Amino acid sequence: LSALINKTNALPKGELERRRQKILDRAISYAKNKRYLPAATSFFAYPASIGGEMPKEFNDYKNDLSRDKGVQKLLSTLGSKDPNKAISTLDSLINQSGDDSYLLLAFKANHLNAKNRSQATKLFQEALYKNNIMPNIWIDLGKNLIYEFRTYEAWECFDVAKKLTPNHPMLSEAIVTGK
Hints:
Largest sheet: none
């Protein structure tokens, strides 16, 4: 984890912006080529990378995305009350989701949180090894580490998230409540 933190902290600001733009460009390219699941995953990854809202370009493809069976399966996992079903669905989608599959690993980790924190930690880290500029995932990893009584590492994760997106809306909640 320390190596990943150091690598992320060493990112120049221009590189951060370039990689965020690449996520958005990839989402648009996937959508134009009617690869809707990878497009949706990339569109979801973009606001997760900036701690903000969906880009305006999402609206150009929203209807097509919402009709896609893979995207419908993905959306069914987001608010699922059945973590086992959500995990199974996410497992089936991960290999189909393109370059931004790391986001699905993080979704899976969030469903695992309560029942297998150590596995969730591994998945959050795997997601961050694939793309370390995701403050949402750093925050989720930090919150998970608190429950594992790894508070120093949790604070390091929150610090990385703050460096990536200083005004991230989830950050103050995570730091104050640990939830």
